[in-house]
Amino acid sequence: MPSYPVNKISTPDAQLNILQITDLHLSTPVVSTADDNDEDSTKNGEVTVCQHRFESVLQQALSGDIRCDLIVVTGDLVSEVIPAIYDHIFKVLQATGIPFACIAGNHDVTDERGSDLPFFQRELIARPTDSRLLSQHVIESDHWQVLLLDSSMAGKVEGEITPAAIDWLCETLSACDKPTLIAVHHHVIPIDSDWIDTHMADNSESFWQHMAKFEQLKVIISGHTHQEQVRHRQGVSVYSTPSTCYQFKPFEDDFSYDTNALPGYRWLQLANNGKVASWVERLDT
Ligand SMILES: [Fe+2]
Ligand SMILES: [Fe+2]
């Protein structure tokens, strides 16, 4: 069983394979499926759609041909900030036997009241971050470093790359010139969808300016947008990844679900020479 949080990873060949899952959005009731012998687990209640899809995504991704060296969960683990839901998610992730790391999204630090109301009329309530969600955390492999950053702001939908976070990134990148991946919940490049771009990471322009001198920065992965996008800036590949549960329609200026898009996840193969291969897969129906 891997310890949490993981700090170092060794792989048996020339690459580090990362599975990114994001925007799980689990809510109550949560039914334990990770360990049927656990007497403390909740046995009652129905498995919600998002719980079922999260566990199906994980099972499908890990039953394929690709060896998974690290699972990175890029925020919005829950839609209600309740410790028992995190307990369940962590139990499921621990049961894979694969090192993993989780960061916060807006829904991990904010409860929404009025989910039946239009998006902009909902009441936002600040909540404390679960202590298991990582911020400013480094995972080092033989040839890469993975930097995990918390962009969430309690009580808000948008995020922020704070000046303190930028300082930490600059210090960390100055100390290690290995090819680098940054994982952060909020997107740092607009994706041409007004409603979600007003809720991206504040201070992104300053972030990019500070990152310009670090040529080893190769990849940024984020969640929050509930869709697949690939952008490039300053030699960095910037990937948005579908939710394991529900999707938003790309290139829509008003809030809109993409009911035709299936739950998804992203693979990243990081080669020893700094090259990156990445693609999204969707849940089989
Ligand atoms: Fe989300
Ligand atoms: Fe989000």
What is the CATH topology assignment?
A: Purple Acid Phosphatase, chain A, domain 2
Task: Give the uncertain stretches in residue-range form.
Answer: 36-44
Percent helix range: 10-25%
**CATH class identity:** Alpha Beta
State the CATH superfamily name: Metallo-dependent phosphatases
User: What is the CATH architecture term?
Assistant: 4-Layer Sandwich
Shape, please? globular
Task: Walk me through the structure.
The protein has helices at residues 49-62, 83-95, 163-175, 194-197, 204-211, and strands at residues 8-9, 15-21, 70-74, 100-103, 110-113, 123-126, 137-141, 145-149, 159-160, 180-184, 201-202, 217-222, 229-233, 236-240, 264-271, 276-282. By secondary structure, it is of the alpha/beta class. The model is unreliable at 36-44 (pLDDT under 50). Bound molecules: fe (ii) ion (FE2) (2 copies). Residues 76, 105-107, 185, 224 line the site of one fe (ii) ion.
Write the layout of secondary structure elements.
Elements: E1 8-9, E2 15-21, H1 49-62, E3 70-74, H2 83-95, E4 100-103, E5 110-113, E6 123-126, E7 137-141, E8 145-149, E9 159-160, H3 163-175, E10 180-184, H4 194-197, E11 201-202, H5 204-211, E12 217-222, E13 229-233, E14 236-240, E15 264-271, E16 276-282
Parallel strand pairs: 1-7, 2-3, 3-4, 8-10, 9-11, 10-12, 12-14
Antiparallel strand pairs: 2-15, 5-6, 7-8, 13-14, 15-16
Helix pairs in contact: 3-5
Bound molecules: fe (ii) ion (2 copies).
